[in-house]
Amino acid sequence: MEKIKKIIEEIFQIMGVEEANIKIKKDNSLKDRELLMVNIEINSKDVRYFLNENAIGLSALQHLVRVLAFKDIVGQVYLLIDINNYRKERERFLSELAVKVAQRVRRTKKPLTLEPMSAYERRFIHLKLAEQPDIVTESIGEEPERRIVVRLYP
Prior knowledge:
By secondary structure, the chain is an alpha+beta fold. The protein has two domains: 2-84, GMP Synthetase, Chain A, domain 3; 88-152, CATH 3.30.1370.50. It has four helices and six strands. The strands form two sheets. It has a three-stranded mixed beta sheet, with helices on both faces. It has a three-stranded antiparallel beta sheet with strand order 4-6-5, with helices on one face. α1 crosses α2 and α3 crosses α4. The longest helix has 23 residues, at 86-108.
């Protein structure tokens, strides 16, 4: 975990991010011992690099840290970085969106196509709506314009 923190601090230093509080939590409760789950919470005043344009910078930081920190690890690593609770707030928004979209599809009986989203956000919507037995979701299009279509179960 110290290696991860050091990598993030070095990236931030190069980018000119002066202050950042980094908390790293490793989840050991998983039954699958081949899967390592690491959650990183970062709080910083200087987040302009990471939270603009649908948080592309946050996704890039997450990918870069995963590649650098776990290149020699055997097994699957699930790494999630959240800066200033952006992901938590976005998940709350996506959860509310999923409920509203499902209600609208039921009411109109017509499919609804959502705005383009990251793979993480699409997965969140798919999982949220999988709880609805009368609703079906599918991803369409090519990155970065990949989006979800929500429709009634046939």
